[in-house]
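Form 7-S
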Amino acid sequence: MIGYVTLGTNDLERGAKFYDAIAAEMGVGRMMDFDSFIAWGKMGGAPGVALTKPHDGQAASVGNGVMVALEAQDKDQVQRIYDIALAHGGSCEGAPGPRGEGFYAGYFRDPDGNKLNAFVMG
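Output:
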């Protein structure tokens, strides 16, 4: 079972604004907040997302084939999360829409290039 997902960043302040906005739409806030690490979610709740400066001091880079999927309440929230992402420095990787039977998603990258989606099943 996944407890949380951590993504790297080279600009924690910029990334925090991006994830603060998405977390607010999803009804959660910061559950951990340190100088080089912030995590969003609810302690004891569903898995959270964290953003960190790499511990080894090297530049953060994007993993090829790596993606974090954020479960939305409905198609309207998929659209809102996607719009919030783009309004906060994200870039489009595929506008919200059906992606096969029973799966609806919008794909985007955060300001550091990490790939995410917002999705709903059914």
